[in-house]
Design brief:
heterodimer; A: alpha+beta; five-stranded antiparallel β-sheet; rod-shaped; B: alpha/beta; five-stranded parallel β-sheet; 5 strands
Chain lengths: 835, 215
């Protein structure tokens, strides 16, 4: 019925126009022209109708005014024109009212099927117009569903072939805003391609506002536009939310922009406006996802869709549609996306290598760091090898570790045990790095392993450090083993905690029951040494002080050898003793060498004693022999003189005198030597030393004169008397004074020998000061046979010391302040003398 | 008992010893000169008569053994050492270097006098040998150069004929030289001349046998 309508109306229009023009030509009446005008009205659409009607109205008004204003011929013509246009106008209005409803119905069934979502998505690239007309509405609905639900729609349709036949094809409508999630496609069965669309939308003039109100009933929001895109309906609540009335919104339309202008986000504007214009121009359904400005100034996401309403003639009369607020959804999605992005970021930024294996142990994910480490990602692994795991093992794992690693992985995959292992992986630059990998399985509710999540870290530096540490430990151990000492350690309770290898070799393993210090010491120390050694050790342990022990220790052969053991406590920072370390060194040879040395020293001492005795006796012999030899020779001479004939008595007498003199000298020497050794005390008497000094000076006065030495004697007053042997003391003084004089032999200047006597504490001190060259060895000068003189016996000062010490005094030598030497001796003031 | 033509020198730093030895020697009638040091002895002018040196080992300026070493090689009187504490090494050394005796103080006069006598006798003998040699040398010095050439050949035992051939002179001329030599040297026989030549250290340069071989 509806399909033949256009052809009939064209034919009728043509017939009516021809008849009308013929009437106008033949009868000369302009009303004949009404027929073609009416025909034109029949085919005019939209604005054209309004334009023509407008023009005619203007012509009517103008001609009416002219007819009103003028009379005569012009008035008559104008009146005719006015009558004509008035008639045509009526006819036109009448035709327009009738055709708009018909055109609308025709459009729904006919040529134009909106649904741009089809385009490009259909595999065949089929133009919508090539679809079977029955399938077109279904496609449009599919597109709408896709828009609102974001679910891709797949439907079957009939494809028009050039020969007019149809072929089944499949099309897919993708939602405009792409979803970030996978959604199952909604597929319609091939037999349901057609819908009851023609029934649903009766071909009647649908008022856009009315349609909007129906939608508003359903969704709570809807709106309507006129065909030019002006707001004609906006619910009150919407006006309140937007803070704008349709009139206010339409001002932008009047300014040449879209009526949405005030509501759109600048970023969405271009896209929205181009879609809007396209729909207004073509009548295609409008779909857009965009932001809307609310009265508060905030933008909220919305999805808007509009459908045109047609008049009876198929002309678009207006648009109705709705906007669904998507803000919460959109923000949720955005938040989710942001979270996902952050998670991805985290996974890629975390300074570890993250990976995932399938339940079978196949690698299924590397994070960026791991991919960068390998220089390849999962897809790069896919090659000719049997599995990706095999590929990883072959290309990325160190050959020495591959077997171990695969075995371990296989074990974990089979048993579900946690994976933890160290192995080497090849980095992108070909360098193998030590990696510590750990993985745990993710299980579903039934306990089945779904996936393995793994994390790896590069521990190359750590491994090297550990190796270095181990190496150090080993070298320290080697050092301890190599050192020629035994090292033991005990805990504070005395329990053995460590024994070095050398100790074990030398002493043998401590038995189980003697692993504490006391038992060990008792077992190993020589019984003679144990008490003192144990006492010292016990004291050391008790006081926490290091100690040293020398004792004989039994070695594993059962031989006792001398060792020196040094114990040192090791304290923690708080000062508590944590451990005792004992280092013992074998000193057997040293001890024995020391013993030998001591014996040798004793020997030497004895020998040197003997030697000095021999020398002493030689000196004594010499001293005594000189006068004795003279005595003997003189005696022989005397004998000769007496036995001569006649005897020479005079010479005999002379020689006998010499014999007596020399024999006395020898006796004197002998007595002096006896005094040196005897230290006789019986001859002591209480005298003042000053008298002895005066005697000595008198004895040496002649010699001093000869040597041109001035003797200067100072004696402090009130000196107490001391117990002394005057002969011995005189010998000391004479000896020291003569030494002083001899020392000044080479002195060029004044030769003064000063003798000073004074009291120092409980002693009387005598100083003999010369101004000679001084003495080189003040300490040794009193030793027997030590002499600095060309021919001295080295006995003088030794005898002096012997005498002074026998008197309980002390003698020593000093270098004088200026030059020369000072000999000082003291004699104690005895209590019994004072009493 | 000893003649006046000998003297004993005594060197000892101990005056008592010097006195005693001088006295002892005087009692034995021996002339004696004493010195206190080695230097004094060396410096003193000594008469050229048979003499003996009694030397103490310990002297202030020079050890007695040292003095002995210094004088070795020259003409010096035989030495008798006296010492206060003689040790074996120094006594051995002293005797080895020609000392007559080594006496420890105190010594007996018998030992000392025996040593002194032996020393003087030795000096006397040395002096007479030295005097004989001096006379012999004087005679030898009286020979003409040609005669001094002839002498070694003659004492070598060459025949006159051989010696003449050696010197390219006639045998007669050689015989004249030979006779002159015998006269001048006061040699009683050829054997006497040969002994003299030996004391004069004239070398035997030729052998009759080799000369025969060469002729």
């Amino acid at each position: 019925m509806t399909a033949v309508l256009p052809q009939q109306s064209v034919l009728m229009a043509v017939l009516a126009s021809v008849t009308g023009i013929a009437v106008w030509e033949l009868a000369g009446t302009p009303f004949g022209l009404l027929a073609p005008v009416s025909a034109v009205f029949l085919f005019l659409r939209g604005r054209l109708v309004l334009g023509v009607l407008g023009g005619m109205t203007i012509a009517l008004v103008v001609s009416g005014l002219v007819a009103w204003g003028h009379s005569g011929e012009y008035g008559e013509i104008a009146g005719l024109v006015a009558a004509f246009t008035a008639t045509a106008l009526c006819i036109g209005a009448m035709i327009g009212a009738v055709t708009s409803g018909a055109a609308h119905a025709g459009a729904l069934l006919g040529a134009k099927v909106p649904g741009r979502s089809d385009e490009g998505a259909s595999p065949g690239g089929a133009s919508p117009t090539l679809r079977h007309p029955d399938d077109r509405p279904a496609a449009a609905y599919a597109a709408a569903r896709a828009f609102w639900t974001s679910v891709p729609q797949v439907m079957r349709y009939r494809h028009l072939q050039p020969d007019g036949s149809c072929r089944w094809g499949e099309t897919r409508s993708n939602p405009e805003p792409s979803a970030s999630v996978d959604a199952d496609e909604l597929a319609t069965g091939k037999e349901q391609a057609t819908t009851s669309v023609p029934d649903r939308q009766p071909a009647s003039v649908a008022d856009a506002i009315q349609a909007a109100k129906v939608i508003e009933d359903l969704f709570g929001n809807a709106w309507a536009f006129d065909a030019e895109g002006r707001w004609i309906y906006l619910p009150q609540f919407a006006q309140a939310t937007l803070g704008l009335t349709p009139e206010e919104l339409n001002t932008s339309r009047d300014d040449g922009r879209v009526a949405w202008h005030a509501l759109l986000h600048p970023d969405d504007y271009e896209r929205f406006v181009s879609a809007w214009h396209r729909s207004l121009r073509t009548g295609e359904p409008f779909h857009a996802e965009h932001r809307i400005r609310r009265a508060t100034g905030h933008f909220a996401w919305a999805r808007s869709a509009a459908r045109p309403s047609y008049d009876r003639n198929g002309e678009v009369r207006g648009w109705y549609g709705t906007s669904i607020d998507l803000d919460v959804y959109k923000k949720t999605v955005d938040a989710l996306q942001e979270r996902e992005r952050e998670l991805t970021h985290l996974v890629n930024m975390v300074p570890s290598y993250l990976w995932r294996l399938t339940a079978d142990g196949e690698p299924s994910y590397f994070n960026n760091r791991l991919a960068e480490f390998f220089g390849m990602d999962i897809p790069d692994l896919v090659d000719s090898r049997a599995t990706m795991l095999a590929a990883v093992m072959e290309t990325l794992v160190h050959p020495d570790d591959a077997d171990r690693l695969s075995e371990s992985l296989r074990h974990c995959v089979a048993t579900g045990e946690r994976f933890n292992m160290r192995y080497r992986l090849r980095r992108w630059d070909g360098v193998y790095r030590w990696i510590e990998g750990r993985a745990e399985p993710l299980r579903d509710q039934l306990g089945n392993i779904v996936q393995w999540y793994g994390v790896s870290n590069d521990i190359t530096e750590q491994v090297f450090a550990e190796n270095a540490l181990r190496e150090r430990g080993r070298s320290l151990q080697d050092l301890i083993d190599a050192l020629p000492v035994n090292i033991l350690s005990f805990d504070p309770l005395g329990k053995l905690t460590y024994a070095s290898k050398r100790y074990l070799e030398q002493v043998g393993s401590p038995l189980a029951h003697v692993d504490d210090f006391n038992a060990l010491a008792q077992d190993l120390a020589h019984p003679d040494d144990f008490p003192s050694m144990f006492k010292r050790a016990a004291a050391g342990f008790a006081n926490g002080e290091a100690f040293v022990n020398r004792f004989r220790r039994r070695d594993r052969q059962g031989v006792y050898r001398w060792i020196e053991a040094r114990a040192q406590p090791w304290r923690d920072p708080a000062g508590t003793i944590v451990q005792w370390y004992i280092v013992s060194v074998e000193v057997d040879e040293e001890v024995r060498a020391q013993e030998a040395l001591r014996a040798a020293q004793d020997d030497l001492a004895r020998q040197s004693q003997a030697a000095s005795l021999a020398e002493l006796s030689a000196s004594i012999a010499h001293e005594v022999n000189q006068p004795l030899a003279a005595v003997v020779a003189n005696s022989h001479a005397c004998q000769r003189w007496l036995t001569a004939d006649p005897p020479n008595m005079e010479r005999a007498q002379k020689t006998v005198e010499r014999v007596i003199r020399d024999a006395n000298a020898a006796a004197d020497i002998v007595s002096r030597i006896r005094a040196l050794f005897r230290h006789a005390v019986e001859t002591r008497s209480c005298e003042t030393l000053a008298g002895v000094i005066a005697d000595a000076r008198d004895l040496l006065a002649e010699e001093a004169l000869r040597r041109r030495v001035r003797m200067h004697i100072e004696v402090d007053g009130e000196l107490p008397p001391v117990a002394l042997d005057p002969v011995q003391l005189q010998q000391v003084l004479v000896n020291l004074m003569r030494n002083g004089m001899e020392a000044m032999e080479a002195t060029a200047g004044e030769r003064t020998l000063r003798i000073r006597l004074r009291r120092v504490d409980a002693a009387v001190q005598t100083e003999i000061v010369d101004c000679g060259p001084g003495i080189e060895f003040p300490d040794r000068i009193f030793e027997p046979f030590f002499t600095t003189k060309g021919h001295g016996m080295g006995m003088g000062l030794a005898i002096c010391r012997s005498i002074v010490e026998a008197h309980g005094g002390r003698i020593w030598a000093e270098k004088s302040e200026a030059a020369g030497a000072t000999f000082i001796f003291t004699l104690p003031v005895e209590a019994k003398v004072a009493a | 008992m000893t003649a006046d033509d000998d003297v004993v020198f005594v060197v000892d730093d101990d005056e008592r010893i010097r006195e005693a030895i001088v006295e002892l020697l005087a009692s034995h009638g021996t002339r004696c000169v004493a010195f206190a040091s080695a230097g004094d002895y060396v410096a003193a002018a000594k008469p050229d008569i048979p003499s003996c040196l009694v030397l103490d080992i310990e002297l202030p300026d020079m050890n007695g053994l040292e003095l002995q070493g210094r004088m070795a090689g020259g003409d010096h009187p035989p030495i008798v050492f006296i010492t206060g504490h003689g040790d074996i090494p120094s006594s051995v050394r002293a005797i080895k270097h020609g000392a007559v005796d080594f006496l420890s103080k105190p010594f007996s006069d018998v030992d000392l006098m025996a040593a002194i006598r032996a020393a003087i006798a030795r000096d006397r003998q040395v002096r007479s040998v030295r005097a004989d040699l001096g006379a012999l040398r004087q005679r030898y010095d009286g020979l003409t150069p040609r005669e001094r050439e002839v002498l070694p050949l003659v004492v070598s035992g060459l025949l006159n004929k051989q010696a003449a051939a050696e010197l390219r002179i006639s045998e007669v001329t050689l015989q004249i030289h030979r006779r002159n030599i015998m006269q001048k040297m006061a040699a009683a026989s050829l054997a006497d001349l040969v002994r003299m030549a030996q004391r004069l250290d004239i070398e035997i340069t030729h052998s009759r046998r080799t000369t025969e071989g060469r002729s």
